[in-house]
Amino acid sequence: MSMTVLDRHEMSSAPRSAAQPRWQDGDAPLPSIYLSHGYPGLLDDELWLSELFEWAMSMPKPRGVVVVSAHWENAPTSITSPTANTPLVYDFGGFEQRFYELTYPTPDASTLGARIAAMMPDSESLHVDHNRGLDHGAWVPLRAMYPLADVPALQVSMPTHSPERLMDLGRHLRQLRHEGYLVVGSGFMTHGMPSRQLLLGTTAQPESWSVDFDSWAAQLLDDGDVAGLSRFRTDAPGMPYAHPTVEHFTPLFVTLGAADDPEGPVKTTVEGYKIGLSKRSFQLA
Fold first, then answer.
1. pLDDT > 70: percent of the chain
2. Which stretches of 93-211 are assigned E, i.e. beta strand?
3. Are strands 153-155 and 281-284 parallel, antiparallel or unpaired?
4. Which of 86, 117, 161, 265 has its CA 20 to 30 A from that of 155?
5. Is 248 exposed, middle or buried (0-12, 13-18, 19+ CB in 10 A)?
6. What is the pLDDT of residues 33-67, one digit of tens each?
7. Cα atoms in the 13 Å half-sphere on the side-chain side of 63
8. Pairing of strands 181-187, 32-36
9. Residue 201: left if φ>0, alpha if ψ -120 to 50, beta else—which one?
10. What GO annotations for molecular function exist for this entry (predicted)?
11. Structure confidence at residue 197 (pLDDT)
């Protein structure tokens, strides 16, 4: 069997990942990040794999990762199974069989699960879904970022699409960043007509709705205009084509809420387009 792009990525990145310093008490808080997680084809994209890995290498290796993914909409708020080697969720269709055979055996995340539960308000119980593992909004980018699968990882479900309530969820998770955990909102900056875009293949050029929405979001993020971003349904150009359903954009509000200053400076880490969709990803302190 010939070596895949992912095989080459993991061979080249594993030694650096093994030597990556781990977050220690007294280190600066880790950032709050929003990443465009793409689709399984990300794992065949040498540039995108490199971008995500270098982003991970720009900070200490976290004690654990908390992901709010577009692909788990569930109320009441829940977390995935914290046990080690939790099976993955292959929540996609139409791809080569090899993608359904990939594994990502993360370590036990019980300590992280307990910390998340402690962060929730008394009025909101946290359900542990022992039957659910990491979906592709988590394990695909994490496999690029931490190829050794040596970082505990849990998902928190997205119980609503209300920007205000998701900001509040992010606020509840904010303290975790100060304890060495990475808080991730995982979506896709534009996610319109994905079936058509996939049919066009990797050479698909972004359409105006994708470019216009991405430019709008980038400007408001630079301006720290959280209120403006919250009005994306009515104010953003390219709608509703950029997000016929909103679950790939709304994790952004968890990221903003988890930041120490949601209106503070944004560092853009990934730009460009894949299958015509915006890969824009960023972090805040």
1. 95
2. 127-129, 153-155, 181-187
3. unpaired
4. 265
5. buried
6. 999 997 888 999 999 999 999 999 999 999 999 99
7. 17
8. parallel
9. left
10. dioxygenase activity
11. 54
